[in-house]
Design goal:
Elements lengths: L1 E7 L21 H8 L5 E6 L3 H7 L5 E4 L7 H12 L6 E6 L7 H10 L6 E6 L2 E9 L3 H7 L7 H5 L4 E4 L13
Parallel strand pairs: 1-2, 1-4, 2-3, 5-7
Antiparallel strand pairs: 4-6, 5-6
Length: 181
């Protein structure tokens, strides 16, 4: 069983506000679009921080919410909060995604889930050979990722030190994140 873990806690300093509250020109909520992308997962958990109350109000009741109290520290704090909260569950893996990936959809998530599973999995989407998000992290790696997740680096250092399966998704999306309006 894989849980979808959406990191949506940042203040979006370069962006001009919390990305969890952002909307496209047509009114599409980035938060809700990102939740929809995780629908192939057994459960969805969203980590909130900046604008947490407003963002939580947007989420369907079926989506679990976690607040990263130290969210201002960076993505590492959000990832730690999410994985620590999941430690008491029976999930074998967490598929970690970000709220600012506009073209990453359920097809990308499904391909990543189909390519690898189990408690020992380490896999990530790649776009034309370039590693990106989402990242599939098996339970056997959670403690190591939590220990390595500092500042705005998230799991980057942990993944660099371990063998990670790349799952090509460049035919489905660009995987590009949005940092500026």
């Amino acid at each position: 069983m894989t849980v979808g873990l959406l990191l949506a806690a940042g203040a979006g300093a370069r962006f001009g506000g919390p990305k969890a509250l952002a909307r496209d020109d047509d009114g599409t909520s980035w938060l809700l679009r990102s939740v929809q992308a995780l629908r192939p997962c057994a459960e969805i958990v969203v980590v909130l921080g900046a604008g947490a109350e407003q963002a939580a109000a947007l989420l369907p009741m079926s989506v679990s919410r976690i607040r990263a109290e130290d969210w201002a520290e960076g993505m590492g704090a959000s990832l730690r909060a999410g994985l620590l909260a999941l430690a008491t569950t029976d999930h074998d893996a967490a598929l970690v995604s970000l709220v600012d990936l506009p073209d990453v959809d359920a097809a990308v998530v499904a391909r990543l889930l189909d390519a690898a599973d189990g408690r020992g999995v380490l896999a990530r989407a790649a776009y034309d050979g370039v590693p990106g998000h989402p990242v599939l992290i098996g339970r056997d790696h959670w403690d190591g990722v939590v220990a390595a997740a500092v500042g705005d680096r998230g799991a980057r250092d942990y993944l660099a030190a371990h063998e990670v399966a790349l799952v090509e998704c460049g035919d489905l999306a660009t995987g590009a994140d949005v940092d500026r309006r």
